[in-house]
Request: fold
Amino acid sequence: MNTTEITVLEEIELDNPIFIEALPGLGHVGKLAADHMIDELGATKFAEIYSPTFPPQVLVKEEGIIDNMLNELYYLKDVGEDNLDLILLVGNTQALSPEGQYLTCKEILEFVNQFDIDRIYTLGGMVTSPQPVENPKVFGAATCEENIELLKEAEVEIRSNDGGIVGASGLFLGLGIRQGIQGTCLMGETPGYFIDAEAAEALLLKLSLLLNFEINTDKLDERAEETRQMIAKAQQMEQDLINKANAGNADDLRYIG
Amino acid sequence: MNTTEITVLEEIELDNPIFIEALPGLGHVGKLAADHMIDELGATKFAEIYSPTFPPQVLVKEEGIIDNMLNELYYLKDVGEDNLDLILLVGNTQALSPEGQYLTCKEILEFVNQFDIDRIYTLGGMVTSPQPVENPKVFGAATCEENIELLKEAEVEIRSNDGGIVGASGLFLGLGIRQGIQGTCLMGETPGYFIDAEAAEALLLKLSLLLNFEINTDKLDERAEETRQMIAKAQQMEQDLINKANAGNADDLRYIG
Amino acid sequence: MNTTEITVLEEIELDNPIFIEALPGLGHVGKLAADHMIDELGATKFAEIYSPTFPPQVLVKEEGIIDNMLNELYYLKDVGEDNLDLILLVGNTQALSPEGQYLTCKEILEFVNQFDIDRIYTLGGMVTSPQPVENPKVFGAATCEENIELLKEAEVEIRSNDGGIVGASGLFLGLGIRQGIQGTCLMGETPGYFIDAEAAEALLLKLSLLLNFEINTDKLDERAEETRQMIAKAQQMEQDLINKANAGNADDLRYIG
Amino acid sequence: MNTTEITVLEEIELDNPIFIEALPGLGHVGKLAADHMIDELGATKFAEIYSPTFPPQVLVKEEGIIDNMLNELYYLKDVGEDNLDLILLVGNTQALSPEGQYLTCKEILEFVNQFDIDRIYTLGGMVTSPQPVENPKVFGAATCEENIELLKEAEVEIRSNDGGIVGASGLFLGLGIRQGIQGTCLMGETPGYFIDAEAAEALLLKLSLLLNFEINTDKLDERAEETRQMIAKAQQMEQDLINKANAGNADDLRYIG
Reply:
């Protein structure tokens, strides 16, 4: 129970796939980009990941149907000009505790590396200013100079000496370094506090350039709008709840028999 | 020691029982409803659950007698028109840490599923407004459409796309999904910061409708009043303690030899 | 490493000893009382307890000498009219995390119960008002009615229905209940934010009455004064440190290579 | 995975080395001093330490190259007049959780003690006032009187009865006490909120006096300046991020699918 449970839905074979991580983060930039890729390019889910390191809750979706906190693995074969195989990691959460992050990322990487991962891309958002920017930039960092050169060719801005990459987007690259798998992080510029379709589009365009595939981004806005509505509703309820808790000390109820 | 300790008080046989979770939460709505069921329908305690994931404390009850933080399992046989067997999970606490929540819920579900659980109901409160409402609604969510239909027939309001169900009321349903056990969450509308007998009554009426049994709710108010007094006293003492700690930095005393 | 390390300093034999817990807590009431007993009655240290659940630090004592965070076990033989054997648990800290509290208390109780513990007393402080009180009361609670009666005979105030006893003073009693060892908690009335010699004296007098031994409390004030000075110095330094951290964000330095 | 991973880069032999800990802390005083020693005296890295107890992130260094959170072990042979062998522990982080601190320090000490450690020195900063001081003092504490005497001879100020030494600088000394290895802590006086080259210089001069070696400190200022710039940049980005999170509740985005 203390370890990640990976349920395989389909036995597949892949040819040195590229592993793309896009779990929820700042502005949902990476998640939105990857969900769109899955939809547009017709990726297939082949595994579900469940972990006691996730937040201890379930989600209420459309029509009152309950869903677990989950990560999911999708695959795509023969993508773009270079006929690349891809594995995408998406989901509705990341591990909650620092050690849970290390544990879960390590077990997921071990699982996907059975396919002999060629490279890792991690997708996220990066905040440069509180105001929304007109033409969001895409920032990058990588585990080796060779990948930095590729980023420069694709006109990705190189981050330099500027702190850390926190969470799964950082840890997968760090674990990759330890296992000799090279990796790159792409971050779309975003104010971070709303579902940012423009940053996701900018990110996707750079990724498609780097991996040499084509993707239609017309429906990205639509998808962002849907997510926005769902979150607005959830935030309203959580805010009400916090107000009440503060007003009446609801927490104190917890321990009394 | 790092796992849940379940002490069996009576060996029983049950016929595909329904598992009802009602641990302490918002407005104590679920707990109050289940404690009342246990009392009115004469349920029998058959197991006690003790865990290092509970808050590290004991409770002082009537006449200075000390009690452990515990969860308890009760059973009822041949309830209502459908002669249902029920297992009720109640107690004075839930696990404290996120991973403790996952661990404890999983171990409890494994234990009760030795009786081949038919369905899971989790009972809780839901905050919609800071003001007490006149006729509290009952909200619902479920793990499958079939149960959503049953909720609609019972005129339970369906939550939709509105965030999460946190803690044991969520996790038991999520664990159920993974084990092929269907489940439903019922939530009584409550401001959340007092022991809410009216929300508990509304909840109980819907549950009795769904499970087809009759229950007298006359004494619910009385029970709520008792609990209210006990909590008021405890909160007063905790508040004094917090005031002092803030005033004089009592915490700093802890580490000095 | 993840468990408590108990170093036995002397192999001893005891006759159904009474186990007295007095780790640091509110107003240091229990600790001060027990340290005084050890000194006045000439108790002998027979074991040291070290645990990764303690705060991750060491203490700087007199003349710059460094000491570990430790709990210690002392024994006394043939105390008072009833020739009681006693084990006292003292130290400079308690476990830091909730699960650490459960784990450490359980392992210590297992260790001392090799001597067939007769009863448990846990000593602590209790805050009733922010102002220092002239004649501090002693409050009590117990795991069975028999002990409550003894408390009443000794004119200890019985707490009733008023919340919890948090930390080691609560957990040892709760663990005792589970192992069939009866126990009593004595709490000296204290504002909680200074080293309270008067509360410790009141507590000691009740304990000596209950266990039927005599003890001179003249030096308690002196001992409290020493501890007070040591703590004042430590608090001043911590406050400076916090001020600086807030002013300059010293925490941010931690992760930069 | 739950334990420290130590990668040996070079098999070495050392003659009862002195173990010097200098992980990041207040004012980066210890780290700066040790990094300078490594540079000036030409120390060789012989092991890298990776742990799930470190913060769950990676660092972006020069030119966008990503680096793991790591601790590193360097050695020096025949240092100074006394021909001492030294092991230096440096890195970009310490363990994050209290139990992680105990675990990681214990495993590192076990590893380096294969060389039969003679003594331990831990290097850190100490805050005495919010204003920068002109001639920073060096404070000390030790596990035995013999070492206190050596500190006094070197005109190090002895801390006395003044609270704790938190983190690796404290724990290594405490673990040393338990294993019969004597140790000393040296702390450079610093306001704590900037990279303090002057405090590091003062610290280094005392250490070189105690260990009887010579070291040129001319480039310490330069090194401090570089680190300062890197941190200023990182702090700016983190602050922007915090502002945004507070403004727009970015955290709430995390759990929505």
Summary: The CA atoms of residues 140 and 231 of chain B lie 28 Å apart. Residues 244-257 of chain B have pLDDT under 50 and may be disordered.
